[in-house]
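Quick start: what a row looks like.
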Amino acid sequence: MKYASYRSVFRMYEYIQPFLKYSIPLEEELPGKKMLVIAPHQDDESIGCGGTLIKHTKAGGKLEIAFCTSGGEKRLYEAKDAAKLLGSRRNHFLQFDIRSLYKNTSLLAERLTELFNRVEPDMVFLPFMIDNHQDHVAISRAFSKAYKNKAINCLVYAYSVWTTLIPNVVVDISEHWEQKRQAIDCYKTQTATRDYVTMAESISKYWSVVKGKNTKYCEAFFKATSAEYVSLVKKIL
């Protein structure tokens, strides 16, 4: 783990312990209106939190998505199709190269600061700080730098793609799984080489079994205030 060291993992268990409960709460409604999703790559938003986004936009929530890297013209169109299924009102394409975010965190932080000023989100969705991909780790570092530029008062919902997280909240997406599946399936360039639908379905079923309460599919998040999340990033990464 080059970008999130094993030492970071051990520290994480220590520092996030106060945020955890033995029984993970089921969040019926998100506590805000405006959502901004930060997706390192075009597909992370659908895999990591697509069901929750659909659920909230169908309930009247407003969604905007920031796609940080560019995967080419075909993937851009796939992202637009997926975002439409998720209910996004506006998409932001930051056009960084894939696997370049870690060495460009300061510039990414500037772009995120501009977005926060424009969108003024109540909730920011981003990959969990030790999700096992260098671009994913870079998002939390850039978020921390952007917060230092100008403190943003919001809730953070950290999702996972490549590394399972230790959540402190789950969302029942049973009624919205099929639309989430369709959003993931928009990315034909990616599902041609890896079965992301089955991956996302398996994880959602796992958290459903953990939670129980007659759910079929759940998404799990590590939830914190922006100030709390930035403090953890500084301690762990």
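That is the whole record. The beta strands are 34-39, 62-69, 88-96, 123-127, 155-159, 169-172, 218-225. The chain has a mean pLDDT of 95.
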